[in-house]
From TrEMBL:
Keywords: Hydrolase
This protein's record includes keyword Hydrolase: yes
Organism: Paenibacillus oralis
Protein name: Alpha/beta hydrolase
Any one GO MF annotation of this record: hydrolase activity
Source superkingdom: Bacteria
């Protein structure tokens, strides 16, 4: 079942329900719509599943009810440059759940949608479990990401104002020059993520470490460390390093922590369905359905 939902800001988003209607519900705001043709082939070159959303939903639908939508895609089409705050995101998620007649649900998000899930968990009583992929729940790199998103916004604005030529993407991703990449995204799109991190500058995730009395899982690839060049603020966003550093402390606070092994297991690889599903599905079956792994 799919439904078009009008959000509080009057934009519309398509959400769907799949799987077992009488089972536990998993919210997947990471369910990107499939792409085909040349665009799909390009994504494959970068190690990205062009049907990742479809495969995630299908991978969980045999045991759970899945509430799915592409929230990031929605924001790219309907940017809210000055309004993407935790409150805005939480209101959107709860509104979607209400419109789909879902009261209690588990949540899986990756990268910035993982930190959005943490905000959802601490601001509502609706979650039955929380999975954060590619973003640590403790000592998250909020300040580093603010630097990166500010630089990205400035470059996007400069690009638009000066109508600079776009950099052609190389056929081989290994040849891509990340230090000299040209940001061609709409400034309104990039600004909303800067707004998000600006709004989180007073948030201390250490203060909520032991506040969530629900099952919790955090995971990252063992190579999930992103070193940004000078044009993006010369910062390092060390996702896996912070997760490893605080693994014992997180365990004491009730978090399960998984590090995906592999020399190529970076931020992009660790979000692909063939990597994610073998980790989150058995965990959800155990925590929600009471079946031993």
């Amino acid at each position: 079942m799919k439904k078009t939902i009008t959000l509080p800001d009057n934009s519309v988003i398509e959400a769907g329900l799949a799987g077992l209607f009488n089972s536990k519900t998993i919210m997947l705001p990471v369910a990107k719509k499939p792409v085909y043709g040349q665009e799909a082939e390009s994504l494959k070159q970068w190690g990205v599943d062009p049907e990742s959303g479809k495969h995630l939903v299908e991978g969980l639908a045999d045991r759970f009810q899945v509430l799915f939508f592409d929230y990031e895609g929605h924001l790219f089409q309907n940017p809210v440059p000055d309004d993407l705050t935790p409150e805005h995101i939480v209101n959107d998620f709860l509104h979607i759940a209400d419109q789909m007649n879902i009261r209690q649900f588990s949540y899986y998000g990756y990268s910035w949608l993982a930190l959005a899930g943490l905000q959802l968990a601490i601001r509502s009583d609706r979650l039955e479990s929380l999975i954060m992929g590619g973003y640590p729940p403790y000592e998250g790199p909020y300040r580093e990401m603010l630097v990166v998103t500010e630089k990205t916004y400035q470059q996007a604005l400069h690009q638009k104002q000066n109508a600079l030529p776009q950099q052609a993407a190389p056929e081989n991703p290994a040849d891509f020059d990340w230090d000299n990449v040209t940001v061609t995204i709409d400034p309104f799109v990039t600004k909303q993520f800067m707004t998000l991190y600006q709004s989180l500058m007073d948030f201390d995730d250490r203060s909520v470490l032991d506040k969530l009395a629900i099952p919790k899982l955090a995971f990252a690839g063992e190579r999930d460390t992103i070193v940004y060049g000078e044009s993006f603020g010369s910062v390092t966003v060390d996702i896996v390093g912070r997760l490893k550093k605080n693994q014992s402390l997180l365990g004491q606070a009730g978090w399960d922590v998984e590090i995906m092994p592999g020399s190529g297991m970076d931020h992009t690889k660790a979000m692909q369905p063939d990597v994610v599903l073998p980790v989150i599905k058995p965990w959800l079956v155990e925590k929600l359905l009471g079946e031993r792994r």
